[in-house]
């Protein structure tokens, strides 16, 4: 990948940038709904210190959230401080195909190592094979797949874990 890559913790003023990145993922992959990635919903679901923006040459190219508590539907309950949960990882199309998601994942792994956390966990759409392959190739282990009804709609979810080595 050419260019200087920087990943920075977001500030409240960055919510519109994160919303833009996530909306691109909604439009290209249908990963979330527009409501789930709106500035208002992001502000409700995440504190600014849980959100990160990745830049290539100072241009926003990706984002993610790292939380120390499980989403409500996570099948295995963990104690606070035991795991970090990776959520809303997205890469803009302009950075796709360049292993950019690997930089975000490496950053997340380094964050949980700094905090002496045992594991990094995530869930994703089980039907997006390319996405699942990215996580597997990075070293995440598929713990289970489950179909859940959320808002009357069936969602097929893969649950992954990455343990400290």
Task: Give a written overview of the molecule.
With 165 residues, the chain is of the alpha+beta class. It has one domain: Gcn5-related N-acetyltransferase (GNAT) (Aminopeptidase, 3-Layer(aba) Sandwich). The protein is 28% helix and 35% strand. The chain contains 4 helices and 7 strands, in the order E-H-H-E-E-E-H-E-H-E-E. It has helices at 15-29, 39-45, 100-114, 129-138; strands spanning 5-9, 51-56, 59-67, 83-91, 119-125, 141-150, 153-163. Strands 1-2-3-4-5-7-6 form a 7-stranded mixed sheet. Strand 6 (141-150) and strand 7 form a beta hairpin. The chain is globular and about 35 Å long. The mean pLDDT is 87.
Secondary-structure blueprint:
Elements: E1 5-9, H1 15-29, H2 39-45, E2 51-56, E3 59-67, E4 83-91, H3 100-114, E5 119-125, H4 129-138, E6 141-150, E7 153-163
Parallel strand pairs: 4-5
Antiparallel strand pairs: 1-2, 2-3, 3-4, 5-7, 6-7
What key attributes describe this structure?
165 residues, alpha+beta, Aminopeptidase, 7-stranded mixed beta sheet, 28% helix
Beta-strand share of residues: 25-35%
Instruction: Give me the CATH fold name.
Output: Aminopeptidase
- Give the N-to-C terminal Cα separation: 27 Å
Using only CA atoms, what is the Rg? 15 Å
Concise overview:
The protein has helices at residues 15-29, 39-45, 100-114, 129-138, and strands at 5-9, 51-56, 59-67, 83-91, 119-125, 141-150, 153-163. With 165 residues, it is of the alpha+beta class.
